[in-house]
Known about the structure:
Blueprint: E1 2-11, E2 16-23, E3 27-32, E4 36-45, E5 59-64, E6 69-74, E7 82-90, E8 93-100, E9 104-110, E10 113-118, E11 122-128, E12 131-136, E13 140-146, E14 149-154, E15 158-161, E16 164-172, E17 176-179, E18 182-190, E19 194-209, E20 213-217, E21 223-229, E22 234-237, E23 244-250, E24 255-258, E25 276-281, E26 287-293, E27 298-301, H1 313-322, H2 331-343, H3 353-369, H4 374-400, H5 406-425, H6 431-442
Parallel strand pairs: 2-6, 2-8, 3-7, 3-9, 8-10, 9-11, 10-12, 11-13, 12-14, 13-15, 14-16, 15-17, 16-18, 17-19, 18-19, 19-20, 19-21, 20-22, 21-26, 22-27, 23-26, 24-27
Antiparallel strand pairs: 1-4, 4-7, 5-6, 23-25
Helix pairs in contact: 1-4, 2-3, 3-4, 5-6
Amino acid sequence: xxxxxxxxxxxxxxxxxxxxxxxxxxxxxxxxxxxxxxxxxxxxxxxxxxxxxxxxxxxxxxxxxxxxxxxxxxxxxxxxxxxxxxxxxxxxxxxxxxxxxxxxxxxxxxxxxxxxxxxxxxxxxxxxxxxxxxxxxxxxxxxxxxxxxxxxxxxxxxxxxxxxxxxxxxxxxxxxxxxxxxxxxxxxxxxxxxxxxxxxxxxxxxxxxxxxxxxxxxxxxxxxxxxxxxxxxxxxxxxxxxxxxxxxxxxxxxxxxxxxxxxxxxxxxxxxxxxxxxxxxxxxxxxxxxxxxxxxxxxxxxxxxxxxxxxxxxxxxxxxxxxxxxxxxxxxxxxxxxxxxxxxxxxxxxxxxxxxxxxxxxxxxxxxxxxxxxxxxxxxxxxxxxxxxxxxxxxxxxxxxxxxxxxxxxxxxxxxxxxxxxxxxxxxxxxxxxxxxxxxxxxx
Length: 444
């Protein structure tokens, strides 16, 4: 393989517009204090007769000084796969990107961006501006963004941390995790788990179908918060210092109330087919919380769920064995990826194993994407997938013989209860039979 390098440099103005379009070639875009745009292209090619100038056949760059638009477009060539594109632009820049089968990474910019991506990850960090994102079949990770976010995606996990603004998310088949975010949240999802940690939102509307909702309130004195689920649990953590007014109803599920104080309108226990309502007020009641569920538990507690430590040391052994044939030139890259993957499996809850290992899988694939050998990539990815399957299987085997924590048992019970209720809804069993099954399950 022959190593080639090509550089472009342009004198540009602030508030630059960057248009990027690529298939199979990813890009990293970083903001600087310089008033220049610098594009660095590195590639490994099989054509020994090629020179650096031949890369212009693959990467085309143009700058329109009058419009202050920098355009970068790529032309796919089958013989050239391993290309790295790094772009440095003034901090005040707006990105309009359309990519496929490749990653896009944006860091340290002040600007509003529009991104369309398919079959590749999106990473945005330390940005001030609005984001308009459409994504399919790839993870989306956004950290430290100040501005509104409008995100539509499917078939990939979403992670957002320390973001502030009006956040609108519509997704399907995608786990969602938000941490320490502020502003207003609108989230509509299907077949997904939702985990909102240390939420500082002034208002939230979350609608879920065939998934779970976990939401931690923090530092809020007023606002409206609506939670609706069709098949799955709603778990709300509401600290004692919050002046809440709760109105909740459940059709074919159960309430668990761990808040101090009295509530009315609810008959304890599970009455099959009867809609149950719960009302509860603390203080001025300026934080209005509405929760509605159909086939799942509504849990209202004042402290975050506890975690049970479990020894996952064997995970490292399995992953290490899966990658024992890593070539020496890649050992450092793989080592860093392994450390990141190991961090993802520390102190996790047993019911979350499959989801966590999916995150590990994404991290490890990110590692092998940095490796140049296509043959090694294919072998490594196959071994990683085998290792992940072994981890999940072994975890569940090891868990079989031990007592579950209260939180873990609740999750197991909830899943069993949902299956019974679904059978009732489908007409496979009667209400009396459902009640007998649930009573037997809870009394085991």
